[in-house]
Amino acid sequence: xxxxxxxxxxxxxxxxxxxxxxxxxxxxxxxxxxxxxxxxxxxxxxxxxxxxxxxxxxxxxxxxxxxxxxxxxxxxxxxxxxxxxxxxxxxxxxxxxxxxxxxxxxxxxxxxxxxxxxxxxxxxxxxxxxxxxxxxxxxxxxxxxxxxxxxxxxxxxxxxxxxxxxxxxxxxxxxxxxxxxxxxxxxxxxxxxxxxxxxxxxxxxxxxxxxxxxxxxxxxxxxxxxxxxxxxxxxxxxxxxxxxxxxxxxxxxxxxxxxxxxxxxxxxxxxxxxxxxxxxxxxxxxxxxxxxxxxxxxxxxxxxxxxxxxxxxxxxxxxxxxxxxxxxxxxxxxxxxxxxxxxxxxxxxxxxxxxxxxxxxxxxxxxxxxxxxxxxxxxxxxxxxxxxxxxxxxxxxxxxxxxxxxxxxxxxxxxxxxxxxxxxxxxxxxxxxxxxxxxxxxxxxxxxxxxxxxxxxxxxxxxxxxxxxxxxxxxxxxxxxxxxxxxxxxxxxxxxxxxxxxxxxxxxxxxxxxxxxxxxxxxxxxxxxxxxxxxxxxxxxxxxxxxxxxxx
Length: 552
Fold this sequence. Notes:
This protein has helices spanning 36-42, 57-60, 131-137, 152-157, 161-170, 220-232, 268-281, 284-311, 337-347, 352-361, 372-387, 442-451, 471-481, 488-500, 504-519, 526-551; strands spanning 17-22, 25-30, 141-145, 180-188, 191-198, 203-209, 239-243, 246-250, 255-256, 394-397, 406-408, 430-431, 438-441. By secondary structure, the chain is α+β, with helices and mostly antiparallel strands. It has two domains: 5-253, no CATH class; 337-551, Aminoglycoside 3'-phosphotransferase, Chain: A, domain 2 (Alpha-Beta Complex). The strands form three sheets. It has an eight-stranded mixed beta sheet with strand order 2-1-3-7-8-6-5-4. A three-stranded antiparallel beta sheet has the order 9-11-12, with no helix packed on it. A hairpin with a 2-residue loop joins β4 and β5 (191-198). The protein is globular, with a radius of gyration of 24 Å.
């Protein structure tokens, strides 16, 4: 493969990348290595923009608490500020095969059940390689456009001209913009999900444009790579492109469940079986490796922009008001659930509901605005120490498996009696939305899902009691193990493991909700919801301490 100057000169990098899976590994190749394809793809219509200096500035005006924005020590801050560490240009090619058409990734073909197209990004011509052969050999692939921003309000007012121009470039068979229809499924100008259909080819994809400020609490690099790897093993629809503030991915037919349907006895064994399949098939180390490669590419690009800015006499670290430089904050890239919670605690706002929750449940201490943070950190240190004693295996966890993220076919009959676990290939359950995926103990992911049986009303009586005497949880665990004849000792051991983690979801979402109370403009009482979720934690802790005392 002939390399162009962008790959050897760190001051002139490609502004986009081609990401694909080969041999269960993620590879990121700068688009400019494909010569004429780069010009063809990036030369979007005048109705779209590639903004080299974009930093999600529009997001800030939609945040309730703008001062909280730069307090967040989140991986996605790499989308806003540049890490100071130099990155060699050749690093972006780390792990790329010299013979891209020679090794197909392994998969079971399950992804073909999703509605998608295989015509992604096939260029009209290339001078030094047959790019189309790469596309056809690597079914899991996507184009990463880190500088391309879609303006939600403009697209709503101009019949989605920018999005249609982008779709035409990504899908060459979608040749006529007038034959592309876009339907808004959810959200407004701060968050949007669109169904896009090309009437010429009868193909449908989804576009998700990120909500304002969500990049500050969600690692979009990890979400993107997780989606790629999930698709490569048949557990997610294809992902076609990621731009700076959104994704284009395959349409999955079906409907989301309602909270009360999670506990339907004809359905929950199937959900359990699919979650067990996730935990068994996914390797969080492969996801982490891919995330690091994508960060390398992005940071190398940002470093080059910064250097180019200096060469052109524009110091991008300078303040427009007084010329003083704003210090770049060293990023801490979060790699597991514990680090994420620590990060959230560091920036959680001090509010009356949070203080009240701790004051009502801690004895011999008065919680105030001044000592709240230190007390939360002490509580979390105790929680982490005790939960880690369980040795629950770390897996790639969904971390947000509420009812809305569980999909069943539209015509699925919930009244049909459950007669036994099917083969995993025949399991109709699919999981969507991978924003919060992180390595975490499997017992947390299970407990987190079971806690969602309560719904947003926080009816904790709907959460199944984690005890071997509870036939509902026994049946659920056997589904997770994929063995309806599982040894009762094995079932009991896993139930005990899950029970140990029953308090963590309440702590996790309680802190999250307190942050959302300051960031989100959604008409929802996040602060009260956070207090209710924290109460789950306190109830669990009371039972846990009693059990420990009885054991001694």
